[in-house]
Amino acid sequence: MVVILRLLIGVLRNCIMSRGRLEAEVILLRHQLNILRRQSPRRVQLNAFDRAIFVCLYRYFPDIGNAVAIIGPETVTRWHRMGFRAWWRWKSRNPGGRPKIDPELRDLVRRMCEENPLWGAPRIHGELLKLGFTVAQSTVSKYRLRGRRPPSQGWKTFLRNHADGIAAVDFLVVPTLTFESLFAFVILGVGRRNILWIGVTTNPTAQWLAHQITEAFPWDTAPTFLIRDNDCAYGAMFTRRVRSMGIRDRPIAPRSPWQNGYVERAIGSIRRECLDHMIVWSEAHLRRVLKEYTSYYNAHGPISACRKMPHIDDPLSVAAASSPATSWADFIINTVGFSFRNGQPSNKKGKQRDGT
């Protein structure tokens, strides 16, 4: 507003000034402008009001463009054309037209697009008609989200879809009473998280591992993929045996045990729930203990692939699921007195917990 008042006062003052005085003032202003052009940056920042003044002067005095110094004449012409388009765009706007839909219905259309990316406008329109909304299909096409491709499945979804044909293997090292090391070869089915096979040895060679794979998977039950680490025990003989059985060998990256997390978690369960509570005497003792634990784990243990739901034919799991004790601490307390051999709680521990 102050700038406009200054311009108006300057115009009125020029009307009463002599021509010589005006020419001298113009020369002085031009000289000052030349000085500022030498010291100012190359590109001058102008606001909308400055552009409007240049456009108005250019409209009434087209030849004044030669006197412009801080900007080019083509710039003023471009501004004038932009103003012309904006004016006619505003003047030819459509004040009427189809009424807008409610914001709740518009949000519902967008929510259906987000939650169902594969649905198109006809499917969403049909679902809205079922819900009692009277809306045209063209309106749904107008307000639905665009530019989204069908989502590609992630690695977690891919693994879940192919879990029934994947097996994971790894070693479990167990110290004995005489400070010897025993190696347990654990084979886990990723689909149901069941322990398919556990072999025990003191020297895991490639020949022994190939024999364990043959014993674990008969020819008609071999998985499609086998996930393992890069242990040197998996030699050429093991690789040839796996390929001859139609199994695709998939070693994980070096120093990346998280890529074989299912069998790593199963081995951790074996340690926490079984081996950490006893001392292994010999190879036969470890083989017998792991056999009993495998029967317990596959029949009564919690299975993450089934969303931790109990087996229908397992009364112990059904009773544990219906009891209020659902934490890991309660689970450990309830399984301390469990006999892996008989598949039922021992009487001695049960009496002590009951206080009798």
Describe this structure in words.
With 356 residues, this protein is of the alpha/beta class. The chain folds into three domains: 89 residues, no CATH class; 41 residues, no CATH class; 141 residues, 2-Layer Sandwich (Nucleotidyltransferase, domain 5). It has 15 helices and seven strands. A five-stranded mixed β-sheet has the order 3-2-1-4-5, sandwiched between helices. A two-stranded antiparallel ribbon has the order 6-7. Helix 10 links the parallel strand 4 and strand 5. Helix 3 crosses helix 4. The N and C termini lie far apart (95 Å). The C terminus is likely disordered.
Strand order, main sheet: write it out. Answer: 3-2-1-4-5
CATH topology description of the largest domain:
Nucleotidyltransferase, domain 5
Residue share in helix: 40-55%
CATH architecture of the largest domain: 2-Layer Sandwich
Query: How many strands in all?
Result: 7
Alpha plus pi helix count: 15
CATH top-level class of the largest domain? Alpha Beta
What radius of gyration results from the CA coordinates?
41 Å
- CATH superfamily of the largest domain, called what? Ribonuclease H-like superfamily/Ribonuclease H
Low-confidence stretches: 317-356
Biggest β-sheet description: 5 strands, mixed
Mean pLDDT: 77
Oligomer: single chain
Provide the succession of SSEs.
HHHHHHHHEEEHEHEHHHHEEH
Into which percentage range does the β-strand content fall?
5-15%
Distance between the termini: 95 Å
